[in-house]
Design goal:
Radius of gyration: 19 Å
Largest sheet: 8 strands, mixed
Shape: globular
Strand content: 15-25%
Number of strands: 10
Oligomer: single chain
Strand order of the largest sheet: 3-4-2-1-5-9-10-8
Distance between the termini: 39 Å
Length: 289
């Protein structure tokens, strides 16, 4: 059934001609966009090709002079996939340790283990079009520390506008303290705020915000940040395989306040979703100032 759904999404995406995609992208030339890919997008079902499709769209964005930053989840999930017994071994080795501490340590180790493989995957996909990836491991603290910010700004001045570089941001799980630990939805919005992005696309496995997560008829197309309260929604908690969830996405978007950035929550498993968002045709939730 999943294969059939993927094929249907691929057929839908193929209806976008190359010329049409180029025209849509060129209409946004000079814009600054943050694209965040959730764990459920990066860790697609075996046999899927969604990540290749998304990288092709991001390459088209770069070619159309859209300034792009990619924020990617998936390192912990990749590490866990490669060593699923790590936590069990840690608990057996340190039987007196608190399980919550061991879970945190395992997540950090999984992130360190998975990050090289995740970056290699991106590097191979983007290299097919002659584009290099530039890894940026950040924490929430880095985006509030003046000295760290100086270094970040020095780097992004060049990598944002260079046509042959894709900056890829992920949280530095190894050094992130509890006070500054975040998820990549919040990190993407913080990055969008720092670079004064025009748009932040939060792509996961859902097509936007619903007042009732179990009722598709309650889908919300557009929300104004000044009029939204988190208490108005019934959220289901964190996403499968990740640390975020719809509550995190909406909260992170609302934290931007009157900033100009438009936040779009959409289904990254839909082929051609970035193009559809930029064309104004996607089923999604747009959270605007």
């Amino acid at each position: 059934m999943e294969v059939a759904a993927q094929q249907e999404r691929q057929r839908s995406a193929s209806s976008q001609t190359s010329d049409e995609r180029t025209q849509i992208m060129q209409a946004h030339a000079g814009k600054r966009v943050v694209v965040k890919l959730g764990t459920n997008v990066v860790s697609e079902p075996e046999g899927g090709d969604i990540l290749r499709s998304l990288t092709e769209e991001m390459i088209a964005m770069k070619r159309a002079s859209i300034e792009l930053i990619l924020v990617s989840s998936g390192a912990v999930a990749e590490g866990k996939r490669r060593d699923p017994q790590l936590l069990s071994r840690m608990l057996a080795r340190y039987p007196d340790a608190k399980e919550v501490d061991m879970q945190l340590a395992a997540n950090q180790e999984w992130a360190c283990m998975g990050q090289p493989y995740l970056m290699t995957r991106y590097a191979e996909l983007f290299a097919e079009s002659g584009i290099n990836v530039s890894q940026k491991l950040l924490t929430k603290y880095d985006l509030t520390n003046p000295k760290a910010l100086d270094n970040i700004r020095r780097s992004r001045r060049f990598s944002l506008v260079d046509p042959n570089i894709i900056p890829i941001v992920n949280e530095n799980d190894l050094v992130a303290t509890e006070e500054f630990r975040t998820d990549n939805d919040e990190l993407a919005c913080l990055v969008a705020q720092e670079v004064k992005a025009d748009m932040a696309l939060l792509l996961s496995n859902v097509d936007g915000v619903r007042r009732d997560p179990n009722d598709s008829s309650t889908h919300i197309d557009r929300m104004e940040r000044s009029r939204v309260r988190l208490d108005d929604f019934n959220f289901n908690g964190v996403s499968n395989g990740g640390r975020g969830g719809m509550a995190s996405k909406v909260k992170s978007a609302l934290a931007l306040g009157p900033k100009k950035t438009e936040v779009v929550i959409a289904n990254g498993l839909e082929y051609g979703i970035i193009t559809e968002i930029l064309a104004g045709r996607a089923k999604c939730t747009r959270i605007v100032p």
